[in-house]
UniProtKB/TrEMBL annotation:
The protein's assembly and partners: Homodimer.
Region (Disordered), start-end ranges: 1-22
Keywords, sorted A to Z: ATP-binding, Hydrolase, Iron, Iron-sulfur, Metal-binding, Nucleotide-binding
Species this protein is from: Maridesulfovibrio ferrireducens
Domain of life: Bacteria
GO terms for MF: ATP binding; ATP hydrolysis activity; ATP-dependent FeS chaperone activity; iron-sulfur cluster binding; metal ion binding
Pfam families: Nitro_FeMo-Co (PF02579), ParA (PF10609)
Positions with biased composition (Low complexity): 1-18
Name of the protein in question: Iron-sulfur cluster carrier protein
GO cellular component: cytosol
Family indicated by similarity: Belongs to the Mrp/NBP35 ATP-binding proteins family.
Gene Ontology terms describing biological process: iron-sulfur cluster assembly
Keyword Cytoplasm included in the entry's annotation: no
């Protein structure tokens, strides 16, 4: 289940130069390399408001000035054209490229719905066709440079969401949408486990239709139990992004094709949606912050010491993080900025997710690496370990000396798998 974007090397970024990549794989990689954040909106089952949430997130991000793509690959009922009042639009199909529909100057939309002869026709796709379509809609659409691609995925934990995640790569993050009832919660538990098995990070959980906004008095009445989503988020270690009430205005906005975030800024629902979007907007800034080279003082010292780890092969920094023989662990005095001890440690056998945990257990604050995949970087960040990529293949002592002197020059992330 770990076969991501590039069939030959599991790479999802632009770093792959594998000879085995097919022209299609290369095209997909090129498209994905221009997209900073891929967010897949999934749900255990249909009708929980997944498309509504995906659409409002995309519109809110565009209103915040981001370049956004919204891709609707819900083969069972593509509803984004209706939600955005774009039902009559037909994308221009050029030579091997499809132009997305421009909703605004910085929001582009593509939906399977645009391709259907009539909205009354039931959508009957055979399995392999569905899978191929999802890949095609990522690779053959002229998305251009995007801050965010929001993907409205088919519901469930079957082949289609799996294919969407595999197409987008292991750094695509999932938002799981649920409703508060117990039965929906069971579905979400499956969705959480699904993402964990596929190996994609979960950005968070949204509880939709959580309490009813009374049109007469404006207050919230809890029809179903609330808090189930939040409790499940806690139980599974997933971030709870927030709850959106069942609001007749949301239903109306969906039917009439105007996203609620465009009109409701101060109401209960508008505020709820904006609270959900905040951490999504922040992932850009947090990522940018994390990519900067931290100074010794930025790292959390313990008893005046920090520990730096360097992957080593043949006595030098190993450019392929996962292929190193040993790690050099260098302890640095934060006052004198001198190395006081160097230990060579052999890591456990390389399996996904093992090294970040092991490194964190060694008390490491900073990893200086040649190259590292986006997924591994996010695992380190989660474990509280900073990562700098693009360091040169020199001895660990030289690399650390340059880092401490402030003269470490980093190049490209040399390996993205
Ligand atoms: P899904 O994509 O999960 O199938 P949709 O986003 O299409 O679900 O939503 C299903 C229906 O529920 C739509 O008619 C939509 O307008 C409505 N809906 C979604 N969220 C809310 C909400 N918070 N309040 C009121 N109606 C909602």
């Amino acid at each position: 289940m770990s076969d991501h974007a590039c069939g030959s090397c599991s790479s999802s970024g632009s770093g792959c130069s594998s000879q085995d990549c097919s022209p299609e794989d290369m095209k997909l990689k090129k498209t994905l390399s221009k997209i900073k954040h891929k967010i897949v909106v999934i749900s255990g089952k249909g009708g929980v408001g997944k498309s509504t949430v995906a659409t409002n997130i995309a519109v809110a991000l565009s209103l915040a000035g981001k370049q956004v793509g919204l891709l609707d690959v819900d083969v069972h009922g593509p509803s984004v054209p209706r939600l955005l009042c774009l039902e009559d639009q037909k994308p221009h199909i050029g030579h091997e490229i499809i132009e997305p529909i421009s909703y605004s100057k910085n929001l582009w939309v593509m939906s399977l719905g645009f391709m259907l002869p009539s909205k009354e026709d039931p959508v009957i796709w055979r399995g392999p066709v569905k899978i191929g379509l999802i890949k095609q809609f990522v690779q053959d659409v002229a998305w251009g440079d995007l801050d965010f691609l929001i993907v409205d995925c088919p519901p469930g934990t079957g082949d289609e969401p799996l294919s969407a995640l595999q197409t987008l790569g292991s750094d695509a993050q999932a938002i799981i949408v649920t409703t508060p009832q117990g039965v929906a919660i069971d579905d979400v538990r499956r969705s959480v486990n699904f993402c964990k098995q596929v190996g994609n990070p979960i950005l968070g959980l949204v509880e939709n239709m959580s309490g009813f906004v009374c049109p007469d008095c404006g207050s919230i009445h809890n029809i179903f139990n609330t808090g189930g989503g939040e409790a499940l988020a806690k139980e599974t270690g997933v971030k709870f992004l927030g709850r959106i009430p069942l609001d007749p205005e949301v239903g109306r906005s969906g039917d009439e094709g105007y996203p609620i975030v465009r009109v409701d800024h101060e109401g209960i629902t508008g505020k709820a949606l904006n609270a959900i979007i905040k951490p999504i907007l922040n992932i850009s800034e947090t990522l940018q912050e994390n990519l900067k080279m931290p100074s010794v003082n930025d790292l959390k010292a313990k008893n005046g010491m920090i520990r730096i780890a360097i992957p080593v092969a043949g006595g030098k920094l190993c450019m392929h993080f996962g292929h190193c023989e040993q790690f050099a662990l260098l302890d640095v005095d934060t006052v004198t900025k001198g190395v006081v001890a160097t230990n060579m440690e052999t890591p456990p056998a390389h399996e996904p997710g093992i090294l970040p945990r092991w490194i964190a257990d060694q008390g490491v604050n900073l990893v200086l690496a040649g190259g590292m995949g986006a997924k591994a970087q996010s695992l380190f960040t989660d474990a509280g370990v900073r990562v700098v990529v693009g360091a040169p293949a020199e001895s660990p002592e030289n690399v650390v000396a340059s880092y401490l002197a402030g003269t470490l020059v980093t190049g490209q992330n040399t390996c993205d798998h």
